[in-house]
Design a protein that fits this description.
The protein is mainly alpha-helical. It has helices at residues 2-6, 12-21, 25-37, 41-51, 60-75. It has one domain. It has 5 helices and no strands.
Length: 76
């Protein structure tokens, strides 16, 4: 959870590096979100696929909230 908490930092490069170092569908989802936020739809689509998710049609803020809630729920 510590690495996920670091994702709230403002430095996109740091967040991107962290997600590359984490394996699994959760990390792929965060990675997809970051590419989407950067405007890189091609890479975002790839990472959504790796996460087992469809490309999000939510706002960035709504999707980030969904991601955080899902990760917190997994920690319970």
């Amino acid at each position: 959870m510590q690495k996920v908490t670091c994702l709230t930092a403002r430095q996109a490069g740091i967040k991107h590096k962290i997600t590359q170092d984490i394996n699994g569908k959760d990390a792929a989802w965060v990675h997809a979100y970051l590419h989407r936020k950067e405007g890189d739809s091609g890479n975002a689509s790839y990472w959504y696929s790796r996460a087992g998710k469809s490309f999000s049609n939510k706002t960035l803020d709504e999707e980030w909230e969904e991601i955080v809630k899902a990760l917190i729920e997994k920690e319970k």
